[in-house]
């Protein structure tokens, strides 16, 4: 028997969560590796999956949410993994379409796992989680499109959130001058400690685009917010610079013009963490282990347990979680 935060639906289609004892027979079929989960985390998408309607992501109840987990292989029908191996899972719609990490056991496809990156513990891997992994993918995409330290300030939107905090710490460690946009002025010291050189109040950037081009300000941008903020930022990018579009915490619409693309050669780079091919996952995790200072990661983390998750899920959707959450499922 093991513990899980089980989501069940009532007759009105409203889901609620309760810590429940399950047996291995309750785990959905189709997986080939059973993992003793040690840690999980809370990403924005977890907030959606935990919400009363499952955020449009959860297809079937009862359901175990948790889009990320790290732990130890207990049993494996796949040659790539054997009992005792430490593994990490992010993406592949685990926690949405498949049962996820908010349980002491998970059974998943071997294809979805990566070996725990060298130099990281399972706890640190979950402090990174999908949010941090995606921040790394965004930085890699900006570099692949020519960004290098010394080109100018790099903007991070939603800076005090999960993606934003990790992006800030990685970029600062790589020698970039980071400007962090936040709607929470009280996080300014936290962001400076992560390495932000400048704090940009959210109000300066969340107004509708009035002029398609503003002064050329940013050499790159990791954008976790989308919406009007992304539209504004596009018009403020330097000639030939790139924005990595990661998130939609501020909205999915993009009320922009194409002018920054046409007159300034600005690039809008889409970042997806869910379906990333295996080789690129390994590359990104290696970069995380190398480029994210572990003491900075530590300073972002708040610990949690399974029983804290319903509240944390609501908090993250309200933009109230600072940095990253590590959930000890045991
Ligand atoms: P968080 O909630 O931790 O961070 C989002 C941050 O955005 C908040 O902390 C807040 O930062 C800011 N924010 C929130 N609401 C608004 C608003 N209305 N207007 C402007 N800023 C706002 O979430 P995550 O870091 O986990 O995820 C961030 C986004 O990235 C989400 O949309 C998520 O779905 C997406 N994502 C996408 C992935 C992909 O594969 N493409 C993978 C991971 C995440 P502050 O208080 O500093 O202003």
TrEMBL record:
GO molecular function, one term: acryloyl-CoA reductase (NADPH) activity
Matching InterPro entries: Acrylyl-CoA_reductase_AcuI (IPR014188), ADH-like_C (IPR013149), ADH-like_N (IPR013154), ER (IPR020843), GroES-like_sf (IPR011032), NAD(P)-bd_dom_sf (IPR036291), Zn-ADH-like_protein (IPR051397)
EC number: 1.3.1.95
Keyword set, alphabetical order: Oxidoreductase
Residues annotated as domain Enoyl reductase (ER): 13-327
Entry annotated with the keyword rRNA-binding: no
Broad EC category: oxidoreductase
Name of this chain's protein: Acryloyl-CoA reductase
Source organism (scientific name): Maritimibacter harenae
